[in-house]
């Protein structure tokens, strides 16, 4: 039998919210009480989209601006999944949140974060989500036919220059190799998500790329950006990496850290990946 699951839910309701707030899925800013989340049964969703419905700025305000982020977990690290910015009195009432991983899916949503960028009226609206997860073909019994791998790829402390780490041949060079060697077991993953957990004390500007190989040629799998995409404003934050293949991903073979302007950085690279295996007749 083909086994897939679709979940849909209004994951948060804002009512006259006039300040920053971070709350779990299923709650409302008026009560600040969370209810059950329909997404908690799976760590990773193959497809998931988020919208902000019935949005409006209360109080007759003509100014003010907000940004809204749906958050999830990768290896226990809270990271943004989807975001919409520049929300103000002139914004349309229905907004589509941009996927920060540049992918169709993402990790399970655990909460929402609202940031008041500039003062104005109160924030109102409903955040909705719909997601689908695939579990392959289950011929009989409680056998699943998918694999989810999750963990730390590398941890770097006090970097002050460019570095390239070979995750296959010499993973201990320049950092501490993590527990997520499981990503090496398959050449192609149906979905893969990377984030970096940046330590305090960041200076200078940096770029981070996850590299793989396709038929012997190296290619960027996911990246923070170019030209100094990481700066002091990201000190102590967790950043999602944009998937360059928009979802699927070959196994990672290298991490390239580029110092764009002089400084120092400490961070860990976390990853979550899923591979469907279709039909399995034997354990």
The level of helicity is under 10%
**Structural class estimated from helices and strands:** mainly beta
The first-level CATH class name of the largest domain = Mainly Beta
Mean pLDDT: 87
CATH fold call of the largest domain: Jelly Rolls
- Helix and strand string, N-terminal first? EEEEEEEEEEEEEEEEEEEEEEEE
Approximately how much beta-strand content do the residues carry? Answer: over 45%
Oligomer: single chain
Annotated CATH architecture of the largest domain: Sandwich
Largest sheet: spatial strand order = 3-1-12-5-8
Task: Explain what you see.
The protein has 283 residues and is mainly β. The protein has 2 domains: 2-135, Sandwich (Jelly Rolls); 146-276, Jelly Rolls, CATH 2.60.120. The protein has no helices and 24 strands. The chain has strands at 2-17, 21-24, 27-28, 44-45, 47-58, 65-74, 77-87, 95-96, 98-99, 106-107, 109-118, 122-137, 146-159, 163-166, 176-177, 188-189, 191-198, 205-214, 217-223, 238-240, 242-243, 249-250, 252-261, 265-276. A 5-stranded mixed sheet has the order 3-1-12-5-8, with no helix packed on it. Strands 2-11-6-7-9 form a 5-stranded antiparallel sheet, with no helix packed on it. Residues 137-143 and 279-283 have low confidence and may be disordered.
């Amino acid at each position: 039998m083909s086994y897939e699951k679709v979940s849909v839910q209004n994951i948060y309701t804002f009512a006259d919210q006039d300040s920053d707030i971070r709350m779990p899925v299923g709650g409302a800013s008026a009560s600040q009480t969370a209810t059950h989340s329909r997404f908690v049964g799976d760590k990773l969703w193959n497809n998931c989209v988020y919208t902000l419905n019935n949005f409006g700025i209360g109080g007759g305000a003509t100014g003010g601006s907000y940004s809204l982020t749906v958050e999830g977990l990768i290896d226990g690290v809270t990271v943004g999944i989807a975001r919409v910015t520049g929300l103000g009195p002139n914004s349309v009432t229905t907004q589509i949140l941009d996927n920060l991983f540049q992918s169709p899916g993402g990790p399970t949503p655990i909460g929402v974060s609202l940031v008041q960028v500039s003062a104005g009226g109160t924030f109102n609206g409903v955040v909705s989500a719909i997601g689908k997860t695939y579990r392959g073909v289950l011929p009989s019994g409680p056998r699943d036919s998918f694999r989810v791998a999750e963990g730390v790829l590398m941890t770097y402390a006090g970097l002050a220059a460019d570095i390239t780490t070979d995750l296959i041949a010499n993973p201990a060079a320049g950092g501490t190799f993590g527990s997520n060697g499981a990503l090496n077991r398959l050449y192609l993953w149906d979905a893969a998500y990377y984030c970096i957990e940046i330590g305090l004390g960041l200076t200078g500007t940096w770029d981070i790329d996850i590299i793989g190989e396709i038929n012997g040629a190296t290619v960027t799998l996911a990246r923070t950006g170019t030209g100094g995409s990481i700066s002091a404003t990201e000190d102590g934050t967790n950043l999602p990496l944009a998937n360059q293949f928009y979802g699927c991903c070959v196994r990672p073979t290298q991490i390239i850290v580029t110092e764009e302007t002089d400084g120092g950085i400490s961070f860990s690279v976390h990853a979550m990946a899923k591979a469907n295996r279709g039909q399995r007749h034997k354990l």
